[in-house]
Amino acid sequence: MEQKSYYKNWYVLTDNAIVETLCKSIKQMRLNRNISQEELSEKSGVNRITISRMETGKAINLMTLIQLLRALEKLELLNYLNEEPEISPMMVMEAQKKLRKKASPTSRNSNPNDYGL
Known about the structure:
The protein has a domain at 15-82: lambda repressor-like DNA-binding domains (434 Repressor (Amino-terminal Domain), Orthogonal Bundle), CATH 1.10.260. It is built from 5 helices and no strands. It has helices spanning 15-32, 37-44, 48-55, 62-71, 89-98. GO terms for molecular function: DNA binding. Pfam families: HTH_3.
C-alpha cells in the first residue's frame, strides 16, 4: 500500500479543489475519532445538515471551520496560519542603537543629597 503524502502542492489546485480537499480532511478527522455527524453537530453547535453539505465538498465559512476544528480537538492546525511579522536585520540594528548604554547620573526622583552634594 502506498503512503499518501500530507504535503500537497496547493498552488496547482483550483480554489474549488482546495475546498473539496479540506472538507474531505475534516470528514476524515471525524471518522478517525469515530463520531457521527450528529455527535459532531452537538459538540460544535453546527447544524448536522451543514456538516453533511461540508463533507460533500460544499464551502463553509471560517467560523464554521473553527467550530468544527474545536469540536474535533484539532485547533492546533491553525498554528500553520499564524504567521509572525518578519524583522529585518536593519530593524534589529536600529532597535539596538536605541537601547540605553549607560544609566544617567540624575533621574527625576533623585535628590542632590543622595550624591553627597
